[in-house]
Structures are given as structure tokens and as C-alpha cells.
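Re: the request from the purification team.
They wanted to know what the chain is likely to look like in 3D before they choose a buffer screen. I agreed to run a prediction and write the result into the notebook, where they can find it.
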Amino acid sequence: MDKKIKVVWVCHFSCEEVHCRLPLGYSWLYTSIYRLIKGRKPTTEVEDFAIWNVNAIEEMKKYADKIELHIISPYKHLAKNIFEFTDFNISYHFFKNRDKVIEVLYHRFPNLIKPSYRNNRKTISKLIGKIRPNIVHYIGAENPYYSIAALDCPVDVPLIVQLQTLMNNPEFEKHYPIDHASYVYRAGVERMVIERADFIGTILERNKRIITTDIKSNAKFLDISLALAEKPDVREKCDKKQDFVYFAKDINKAADWAIEGFAIAHSKMPELKLKIVGNYTEEYKAILDKRINELGIYDSVVFTGKLPTHSDVIEEVRHSRFALLPLKIDFISGTIREAMSIGIPVVTTITAGTPSLNEKRESVLLSKPEDFVGMADNILRLKNDDSLAKKLSNNGVETIMEKYNNIETIRAWVDCYKSLNSCKI
């Protein structure tokens, strides 16, 4: 029997199953500083996020006879410095973000403070040293609070950096809700991590072109992607509580565009309703409320705020007739995949990736970025044409099943691990 390949993933994620197992709490220092800055006590709530990592973990359970998987992950509000457990032959090593106080100050004063994440780097390096892996796989280069530790990876261990996004895309800052100082800092860390990587995981030719042109001319790429597939789940009967839903982990991604397009459609069909699901800051909500009042649609738009779990979000989406999901920079967002996978017709915008959803069959309705009249036309088309809505619902599920397959994705990861383990860099 071949010896198992010992692999470390360094990533972040949260799901209800993990959250319930972890000891959560705060130090008095962090609580005091949080109260001083925010004016309230911190909570230990953590929304589900990075679901592609949860999907990948689920698939990796099938390879317990070939891969010894260790997952190193920071976790919000962890009461202990390190909390470890093993489940389904996967070893989890969660650690407290011990640089959290500096991080809070950084978010408050991004022009003045640039975190080094020294403590997090030490923790990750210590864990990797204890595990002694054959391969280290960082998932996400754009999140400094763990990705910066890739700079400390032992040079004799193959280092894969899996892209979740690419902040060094020249179009990123223009279309992403981020202040300039934070963008410069995070894009700079991402650049250093990519330069350090032995291999970069991405299937997007656009990312490869940017990296080889602007960051690392001799970059080596692995054609592997994230485990992005959503399990199709179309139910015959479901009470529809609203016409359209916009949802995102943080609604500042494109809720403003959704509101603009919706308002034009609403002027022609006043009975339309829009629900907006996701986290927001009070400052951003105030901006949206002002615009909603200006547009005269205040009684037709409802905000839910952040919901506790990913399942709660999907259930809310399921009770909508259609999804209004404009994109500014994303190739294809997880929200679009999630809506399509449960048979909810989607109105979105043209990005580098969304036209591919219509290559074989019409699966989404597209308009140009910031063409709010075109977006409104698509909203009205869906509302007025039951046959179109049914076609997009059926085609969307078929397209998602065809384009995304977590089984094949993680099989490709395992094949890469085998290949890298059998030869030197």
C-alpha cells in the first residue's frame, strides 16, 4: 500500500457544523477596545462563508486512504489560541487571530496601520513544522491575516497558492467596495504570496495573463479550480414571498446597481417587490436608504440583514420568484450559481465570465454593466413571460450541473498532489 501524502490546507471558512464545535469567547483587552471603537459588546456570531472550502472538505473525505489532510484555519472569536480535532480522518487546526486588535485598528485607520500578522505567521509556521507535510496548499492569496504566512513556507515543500480572486486585476479596485489604502495593502500582500508560490492554481486565462505579465513571468500554473458546485435542489412547490431577491455575503458588492435597475422596472410595474439579503454597515445602509427614498421605492424594498447560516440564505432565496444579481468585477459569483442550482431565474450583468453561462443554452438574462435600463427590461421580461422564466429555471439547473462538478474538481487536486509528491520542484 502506498504511503499517504500529507497535505496541509491553509484557508478560512465557516459552517454551522464546525461553528458549533469550537470554543468561542474574547479577551478583556479585545472586548474593551471593541467597546471603545464600536460602542457595543462584540458577539461570537460567525456567518457561513467560503462554502467552496466546505465543499472541498466534504469531497476530500473520500480520499482518506490516499491523503492525510490537515486544515489550518483562523477562526473569529476562538477562545483558545489553538483548538484541534480530527473528524472523518481530516485533522483540523483552528487558531485564534492573535493580531485581531491590530486588525480592528487597521480597519479603522487603514492609512496609518498595516498589520504584519506576526503572531498568525508564527502560529501557522509552528503548525506546519509540527505536521511536516509533503505539500502545502494555500487557498486564497488576497486575505493577509493568513495568506501572508505563505512567505514563511519551507522552501523544500511544494507550495500551491489557489486563487479565489485576483486583486491585482487592474479593474479590481474600480469595481470592488474597498478603500484605496486597504486595496494597496492587500494587493501588495497578494503579489508577494504569488511571487513566493511554486505553483498557482487557477483555470482562468485572464488571471494567468495578468500574473505572467505583471507579477511573475515564470509562473507555473495548475489547472485546478475551487469546489464551486452547488447541489441542485429544485422543489416543486414553494410559497413565493417576493418577486426579486438580491443576496450577497456583504451587500455593498452591487446592491446599489440592483436598486437602480429595480427602480426603473418598478416605475413601469409598481407592484414589484425586492428583498435584499446580506450583511451591511450602517453607513452603507444609510446611502442606500437615501437613494431608495429619492427613487420613490421605499415601500417596495425590504432588507433582512445578515442571516445566521448559509442554509437560511438559500431558503430565503428559494422563496423568491427571481434573483436580481448584477456583478461589477466577479467572473461568476457564488450567488448566481446558488440561485441557478435551485431553479431561480437570474438577471445579471456581463462580466468576463457570465456570458459563458449562455454558451450552450440561454440560462441567465444579461445586460451591460451600469445599463440599468437594460437590466430593468430583463426584470420586466421575466415578470411578464412565464415561459421564459420556466426555460431559464430548467436551463439554469442543467448548465450548473454541466459546468461545475466538485467530484472532478477535487479529483484534479488529488492528482496534482500525487504528481508533485512524486517529483521535485
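For the purification team: Residues 386-403 form the longest helix (18 residues).
Please add any questions underneath this entry.
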